[in-house]
Amino acid sequence: MFHTAIFRLMKTRIFLNILIFMLFVPVVSIHAQNKSIEKADEAYKDLQYQVAIANYVKACDKLKDGSLKMQQVTLRLAECYSLTNKPDKAAEWYGKIVDSKFAEKNTKIYIEYADALRTQGNYKQAEVYYNKYLQKQPEDFLAKAGLRSCQLFADTSIIQTRFIVKNLKNLNSSEDDYSPSQASKNFDKVFFSSNRQGSVGKDRDNWTGAWFSDILMSTFGSSGWSSPVSIDANNIINTESHEATPSFNKSFQTLYFTRCERGIDKKMYCQVMKTERQGQRWSTPVTVLSENLSNIGQPCVSKDELVMYFASDRKGGSGGKDIWMVTRTGINKPFKDPVNLGSIINTPGDEMFPYLKDDTILYFSSTGHPGLGGLDIFKSVMHGNKWGEPENLLSPINGISDDFGIVFSADDKGYFSSNRAGGAGGDDIYSFEKKSVAVTLSGTVKDEGTLLTLPGINISIVGQQGDTIKTKTDQQGKYYFDASKLKEDNRYKLILSGRNYLSQLDHFDTYAYHQNTDLLKDYQLSAIPTVPIVLPDILYELNKWDIKPQYQDSLKTLVRILVDNPNLAIELRSHTDSRATNEYNDDLSQKRAQSVVDFLVSKGIDPGRLTAKGYGKRVPRLLDKDVNRGGYFFKKGTLLDDAFIGNLPGKELKESAFELNRRTEFIVIAKDYKSSSGKLTSAMPVISIINDSLGVVIPYITLENGNKQITVQVNDFTCNAIIDADSPDSYISSQKVLELMQNGSLTKDDFVGDVNLILANNQVTEGAEVRIKKLRIGGMLTENISLVVKEGSGYSLKLAKDILGVVGSFRINTNSNQIIFK
């Protein structure tokens, strides 16, 4: 016998246990001396578990506690309760023998007891017996899944979702009511399965003890759901057999359902039937899918009705009940051979009650995937032609009991079945609806170095669909996004940026919040460094330039800074220790700088943002913090020059100091970098080498009018400048001055004279003198220079002999388009 209710209750592992039990444990009835055991064994063999339970309980009163016969009967009773979906009673009887020598010989008792405990929410104790079983059977899939379930879901705080679940009391009875199905386009009528008293089949099922099941219906009106009635008065669909799990096509004119009838071997077999709505009546149901000696049921069809999903215990599956699929070329054509959905969906446990949403989302119930207990409802999304990894719907839709038969009336609401505590009795039908919550976001932004609040910081939040909302911190450094700005069930990227500060990225989402929530996220921003920063732990072996794998993680911080701050350009400075010649160390430092550049480019950093400079041995390290090497503390402020190193005691300490000098640093040289193409530049950055004989080489381009143009940084902002080595005076245009003021590179304090007169009418007076704190040409930095504002020269910025001479002696190689500074 295998009707639809049993289709849910039956556990394959139990039946495997029965076979093992019969092979290795003497059948009780062989040695039985009383009629109760004989009757119980016969009923057990015929799958009449209610009869078996009654007789086994009766026999227990006459058996000696602890005897082999008593233990055998106890196991049978536990199995009967498990097969009739009474985990509390199953746990009670398994518990009587689980710690006995009898269980050591019948180790399946451990896993059955663990399963029963888990369906009661006793995860901690269940974990003990899953582990005990896995010591004997370490590869058992279901035991590992059960153990994983206990580990995943013991913390109830992580399994909550924002659904409100309500028992539909008007639909439910003291018996089993399950598998609801929308029955009209207005979603005001529902069909469902029920084995309540009054069904067409007048007898009780000796397996479950319940009445035979019928398909009932209820209509929603001003007073709520009406009292359920049979879907047809003429008993065309509902018969003396079991009918259940109704499922409609998209027009609600064709009904597919499961019917379980007795075969020639007197056992019950299930098949999929179809009937058409004809006004107020139904056509005579016809079989659309069936097999001999296996069970097929719980159908659902695609929108075009050319694909049907169903559950079955047919051969060729993963074990237990599996979800299968059949296809056909037309609605009136026969279905082709079934295809198993495969191991992504199906497990050695039970997968049942498929429901197809929008033809691309499959909902189903499973005992094989990690769950809270019993049957849990899962969701799998089709990607291409493959189903994605199933996702547990979590609480409150899933719980420690059986949860199954879900159906949707909208994206975030619908109905499902559950036998959870607090219902009317047995399986009940529940509604679910996602609860709306309001989420706000606020916080304070401070300077990391001073802990002073920062006004005027730009803050953007970008949703997963690309929607962007922006604000700024107020005078107290505070920001706020109200609930209208943040969406439920969304992922956000938060970006903080401000002049002279490194941008910062953060991520958060609103999935986990089940109540109205005010998020508080404070941040501290780091100032863009104005001095060279030694890259942590980038140390080189003597005479080597490759970056060791253990040091590449140190560069990831720099990669993150550059990714988060795409407007920054940096100079990488590589240094050697003081041994060997200048020429050798210049070449070595070039290679070391290049190795860092190559690594950064390999991580997607635009090469145009990188300038690398080899300093050889010319700049010994000035420690900006205490450093411990080999138990010796090099104190902050120590200059690691030859004089200091020469006075260190011992070869090891000297070598440690030399190692500290072999380093790579970076310094920000521009805050307004923009790729000319918007893509990664193809040219590798120029490596500037400090070399006594060659000098520092800076390339230039020749414009159409013959002028020589280079790129410079004025107070860390990038500008194009004309090099005029024949002119004595350098100039800057008023327009360029205003541009630098607008981007924050210059302020009123940088002018010489009465600034009110110089900046009258939002213009810069010609002849005004402006001070530049930092002028960077290539790899060379010149500080505190003055430029005169001049209009009509045709130059936005011209660098002549007066400035170039301050930088250093130079010559121009017109053949190679290079300016070479000594």
Write a brief structural summary.
The chain contains 17 helices and 49 strands. It is of the alpha+beta class and 822 residues long. It has five domains: 4-158, Alpha Horseshoe (Serine Threonine Protein Phosphatase 5, Tetratricopeptide repeat), CATH 1.25.40.10; 163-434, Neuraminidase; 439-525, Immunoglobulin-like (Sandwich), CATH 2.60.40; 533-670, OmpA-like domain (60s Ribosomal Protein L30, Chain: A, 2-Layer Sandwich); 695-821, Acid Proteases (Cathepsin D, subunit A, domain 1, Beta Barrel).
Give a written overview of the molecule:
By secondary structure, this protein is an alpha+beta fold. The protein folds into five domains: 4-158, Serine Threonine Protein Phosphatase 5, Tetratricopeptide repeat; 163-434, TolB, C-terminal domain (Neuraminidase), CATH 2.120.10.30; 439-525, Sandwich (Immunoglobulin-like), CATH 2.60.40; 533-670, 60s Ribosomal Protein L30, Chain: A; 695-821, Cathepsin D, subunit A, domain 1 (Beta Barrel), CATH 2.40.70. Helices cover 23% and strands 32% of the residues. It contains 17 helices and 49 strands. The protein has a six-stranded mixed β-barrel. Strands 2, 3, 4, 5 and 6 form a five-stranded antiparallel β-sheet that branches. Strands 7, 8, 9, 10 and 11 form a five-stranded antiparallel β-sheet that branches. Strand 12 and strand 13 (307-312) form a beta hairpin. The N and C termini lie far apart (98 Å). 40% of the residues are buried.
